[in-house]
Amino acid sequence: MLPWFANDHFPVYLAPMAGVTDVVFRSLCKELGAGVMVTEFVSAEGILQRDDRTRHYTEFDEVQRPLGVQLFGADGRRMGEAARKIMDWKQPDFIDINFGCPVNKVVSKNGGSSLLRQCPLLAEVAREVVKACPIPVTAKMRIGWDEQSINAVEVAKLLEDCGVSAIAVHGRTRAQGYSGRANWDVIAEVAAAVRLPVIGNGDLSSAAEVLQRRHCGVRGVMIGRAAMSNPWIFREVNAALLGAAMPPAPTVEERFTLMRRHCQMEMERSSRPESFVLRAMRSALMNYTRQLRGGKFLRSRFTQLSSMMQFEDILSEHLAHDSANPGYLRESDAGLESLSSLG
Which of the residues 159, 174, 192, 306 has the least number of beta carbons within 10 Å of its own beta carbon? Predict the structure, then answer.
């Protein structure tokens, strides 16, 4: 058994999200209580070609353990070879196989959720990776390709037979993408059908929702898009699981401090100019504003961000308007703009 499930422990994972869960964001979430980490997905072929950019995605800091590197591909033998190369570079705690990504660039290469339509190939990939790895192998999947072909229970049983150690189930089909609601009834069916730990994923945006879904029989949960705007959700969930008092919601100043720190940490790790790093940070900063009064104003300003001086000016202007105008851009940010669709 994976040690983080021992003694009925209920781990809270940070979901792997392309373009989001890099080393810095994982570090911030770990500080706020995230339990288990998984890297952004990486291509097995990119690993085998020793592509520097692909290898970069596998990097992690020791404090982020337990951590897994997530691989995608459709050739079991080469997936196994890629997993061994990753372990040669830096020993993760587990290898995770991506059977859930819905994006076209992955599906068109027969990776991610496309394998849910090809169970024999999916099983071959899982067997080969398990055979190649001296460390545990886990998998992340969706409940099926579309509503007419929900096969999560069948796939989970196959993965269990192949020696996979745990399965994370996102309660949507590939056809849904990130729309509609996650089907937790199917997740519960998977949890009841296999002996290995099942981690539930989908529409978990509060501690109350995690407590509710815990009764579905899952052994842990995985939080993704909610963490993009509210990484404090991990400390809230941990408190709820322990039956402790709920920590106070982050203040405006706490949010700004985290945003500033995220920018600074990204600049410290990058060899690129400040303007390049901050342009790349625009989306993350806009996500942090989604639970702030006046967030729409901040998002409009962050679309032009290119320096830390400009960042400080934007925040100062926001605070001045907010204190001087009690009705300043009073809005409900929920539903203003949808969060990005991620693999």
Answer: 192
